[in-house]
Amino acid sequence: MSAVTPSTAPSAASGRQVLHAVLGAGPAGTALARELVRRGHAVRLVDRKGEGPGIDGVERCAADVATAEGARAAVAGAAVVYHCVNVGYHLQVEVMPRIQDAVLGAVEASGARLVVLDTLYPYGETGGAVMTEDSPWKATSRKGRMRAELDEKYLAAHREGRARVVLGRSADFVGPGVLNSSLGGAVFPAALTGGQVVGLGDIDLPHSYTGIQDVAAGLATLGERPEGDGRVWHLPTAPAVSTRAVHAMIERRTGRSLNVLVVEEPRPFGAFDEQFMAEYAEMFYQHTEPQIVDSSAFERAFGVAATPLEETLDATLAWYGELLAGQ
């Protein structure tokens, strides 16, 4: 861990690599940091503690980006900033606007471009309609309205010339390192050990899942391609299939039948405790209507296709296998 100071930041003027600062060291931020290093960039990965496994080519730093001082320190010297910060589900409505104010103020002052990892929440219930970047924002949930308000503030900052901003929206994550997802820790460990696999809502409905590697590649592409600024993009997402079909794909790979518990309504289960599910109840519509994301606009504009879901599942099962072996 190191403190974040302007003197540590590479600059184009010095002939060194331009710095990319990733805020948030969860699955998305960590995968993005690795992807940026792979692409040859200097990378700073920031979270509140600045701890965690070392990543070759990545400087890990500590800063509280919910504060103006912490956000300014986190982005100091960076040409591109990626906002991948998330907080506990029960804290989102209160804390995410504070983080936005601090991060947006910091990039407005520094002149860095801002790439925001976004959710599908602003669309609200769609009745199963395919979601494109032109879909109306009709959220009625607290968290959906909050996300829509944040997104409008980001886009307004860009329109008004106060900051250069682009948003990348993702469906539910799946992939190596992804634990707290409907296709994460509630599925893969049990699939490998014969335990109880959890499926939410109607598992026969089509549901989009975005591979964490595609989240990283999509955000990195937006960071490298400023012609995409000023709008929302759907990050590359494999074609939607039913969760039951995903389970069948996992069965073929593990060689065992899954013992699936279908949770048809929001209630606590496993690691998703009563507090979490009470907050998630308003979002449970995502599992009772089709959730279909169309990312073709991104793929046409930037020539970046989604990883086939089969490949993502192979990588995810391998990662969880190693995780279980190490316990």
From TrEMBL:
<feature type="domain" description="NAD-dependent epimerase/dehydratase">
    <location>
        <begin position="24"/>
        <end position="228"/>
    </location>
</feature>
<dbReference type="InterPro" id="IPR051783">
    <property type="entry name" value="NAD(P)-dependent_oxidoreduct"/>
</dbReference>
<dbReference type="InterPro" id="IPR036291">
    <property type="entry name" value="NAD(P)-bd_dom_sf"/>
</dbReference>
<dbReference type="GO" id="GO:0004029">
    <property type="term" value="F:aldehyde dehydrogenase (NAD+) activity"/>
</dbReference>
<dbReference type="GO" id="GO:0005737">
    <property type="term" value="C:cytoplasm"/>
</dbReference>
<dbReference type="Pfam" id="PF01370">
    <property type="entry name" value="Epimerase"/>
</dbReference>
<protein>
    <submittedName>
        <fullName>Epimerase</fullName>
    </submittedName>
</protein>
<dbReference type="InterPro" id="IPR001509">
    <property type="entry name" value="Epimerase_deHydtase"/>
</dbReference>
